[in-house]
Backbone:
């Protein structure tokens, strides 16, 4: 509910603002009446100011947290404006109905409505603008922090996937293959390039087609075979048609293959990636 958007600081700001406004309005009215300060004649004035400020607080809460926060960020400017006008007219009408002696004048009802709307608008404008600006910059700061955290998480994820030791090992292998077997070195370079291109391409995605993940897995297995000189054997028995409509988190199979290598002895493992999607 939009009332939950009001935090403790906002309540404190509204309390301070209206306490100050109440004191200023009271002494302004008292100076015009020119009567002793401590007298029962001030009770109607205090009652009027209390009721007026309660209506102003309610109006600000509805306009700032209910209307502006819900529609202005969505660029629904016309709707925001119209709803604000509706709220002002509704609050003014409620004042005239509940407290006719306090808000009505000798003028017509329409005139009282228009003047009431203008008075309420002027009353809520300073604090309303301040709270709206505070909400805007607070939301902007929160979004910036979330974006920063997301980028840091993505960077950590990419760093975890692109293990420097794995890269250095493959570069050493590539260096040896260039001297001993240039053709294998060329294929090795292509597989290594495809693997890192895949990781970078899909680092911001939650799911990728299983077919692309399978291609990535094939390249990864090829690099492992070159590194361990075919001491591990992997049999992939999956057809493209069988996984056409399936998706996986990117680089999921890399973790599976790493566990195969880590928890099995060389020359004693035959791991089959079968129809487990």
Residues:
């Amino acid at each position: 509910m939009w009332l939950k958007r009001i935090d403790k600081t906002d309540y404190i700001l509204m309390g301070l603002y209206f306490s100050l406004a109440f004191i200023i309005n009271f002494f302004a009215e008292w100076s015009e009446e020119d009567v002793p300060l401590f007298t029962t004649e001030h009770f109607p004035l205090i009652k009027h100011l209390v009721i007026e400020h309660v209506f102003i607080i309610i109006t600000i809460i509805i306009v700032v947290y209910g209307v502006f926060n819900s529609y202005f960020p969505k660029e629904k400017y016309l709707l925001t404006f119209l709803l604000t006008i509706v709220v002002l007219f509704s609050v003014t009408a409620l004042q005239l109905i509940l407290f006719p002696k306090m808000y009505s004048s000798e003028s017509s009802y329409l005139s009282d409505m228009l003047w009431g709307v203008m008075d309420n608008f002027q009353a809520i404008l300073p604090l309303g603008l301040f709270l709206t600006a505070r909400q805007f910059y607070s939301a902007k700061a929160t979004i910036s922090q979330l974006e920063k955290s997301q980028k840091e998480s993505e960077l950590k994820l990419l760093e975890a996937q692109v293990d420097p030791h794995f890269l250095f090992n493959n570069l050493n292998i590539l260096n040896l293959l260039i001297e001993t077997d240039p053709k294998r070195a060329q294929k090795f370079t292509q597989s290594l390039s495809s693997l890192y291109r895949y990781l970078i391409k899909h680092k911001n995605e939650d799911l990728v087609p299983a077919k692309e993940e399978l291609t990535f897995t094939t390249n990864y297995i090829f690099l492992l075979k070159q590194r361990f000189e075919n001491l591990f054997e992997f049999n992939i028995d999956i057809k493209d048609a069988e996984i056409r409509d399936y998706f996986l988190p990117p680089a999921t199979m890399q973790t599976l293959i790493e566990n195969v290598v880590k928890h099995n002895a060389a020359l004693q493992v035959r791991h089959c990636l079968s129809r487990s999607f």
Q: What stands out?
A: Residues 2-153 form one domain.
